[in-house]
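Q: Hi! First time doing this. I have a protein sequence and I read that you can turn it into a structure. Is that right? Here it is:
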Amino acid sequence: MATVTDLTRDPHGFRAELGAMVRLALPIVVVQVGQMFMGVVDTVMVGRVSAEAIAAIALGNLYFFGASIFGMGVLMALDPIVAQAVGAHDREAAAVGLQRGLVLALALSVVTTGLLLPARPVLGLLRQPEHVADVAAAYARIAIVGILPFYAHTALRQTLQAMQHLAPIVTTMLIANAVNVALNYVLIFGAFGFPAQGALGAAWATAASRWLLLASLAVAARPLLYGYLRPLRRQVFAWRPLWRVFALGAPIGLQYELEYGVFAVVGVMMGWLGTVQLAGHQVALSLASLTFMVPLGVSAAAAVLVGHAVGRGDPLESRRAAAAALVCGVGFMMASAAVMLTVPGWLARLYTTEPPVAALAATLIPIAGVFQVFDGIQVVSVGILRGTADTRTPMLVNVLGFWLVGLPVSATLGFRTAAGPRGLWWGLTVGLVLVALVLLWRVRSRLAGRVSRIAIDPGAVVT
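A: Yes, that's right. Below is the predicted 3D structure, encoded as structure tokens:
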């Protein structure tokens, strides 16, 4: 992170870095929001069906992302690999990185499919309401259809972001969202001869939209990516470098899994409290997840710009990029926190017409507002560290903050006090504060000196 001396010595340099961060982050935010918006649209439209349907969507999404988020994190290894290669003007390393990412996407699709198939017995073991579990399991199985395009699109998107070619990603994301809304209307409620399928209609619509998203991006970005995809490099299938890419990305995947897993466990515990509690939790979590897409986009931009600076061997620029990212991401979350604390009831009614669900969600949304600022700090810090190829620290900090502190506090407040659902959320907040503060300290210490570029191929060591 840039020191006060760094910024006062060259304030124009920092302002230029802040402008570069905003210009890169804005389209990434649009893409992140667009990706999240598919789930939000599913929740809002299914929310017009019944409380049981919205609870099934919540549980099905929990299971789907619990099974798939590790693979998405593994593919985030392309951030430092490609961004640092771009910063060093090493086109060949960027091409090989992308091709290895696509190989990993295919392998991860097979593994994730195996995890999604036994959804019903797993949900049964978690003691979820029987009818809700039946629909949620069917939702997760339908999602298998969209796994491969989900991962392949991630690999293409991360590469294009690292190259700062964002127009094709934004355009295709907007198209896919429009198609998803139309398919949701047809398949959830029934239209044009299609029967009403409720929550399962949303699953089919999202799977189809993911294939459209991949196909349209491949077409739109073909002039940019052709030289990186063809010819197929022989070293792409070399075992040791491929393993190094996986080893770099696996801590990111585990960090995502651990962070998401805490929210998933809390979702399961909400299910123990009842269907209305689970539905209200999903409404509040969906809103918090939507605002989270902004600092998540800033985090991705930070990984790119910090990675470029590391590739160029410019430590001062890397610190400026980190500071600019924190200003953008945390500043937005402070604004969104103010809205959540001010009008929680109105926000809840945007998601559901069920009065008990809206009432409960309105008590959880202000708590989401409290942890917004710390959520911004931690996710932007993760992106900064990823740009330097430090992927292990966020994973370890997540274990400490969320699992060893946050989750026990959630369980205690949720089941041993009268706080109930609110207690579960306050426990998450405690863990999040701890994670944010430790990661911010790590960013400062990591960028205090010179950071070396990562190398993947033979003779290289993952730093």
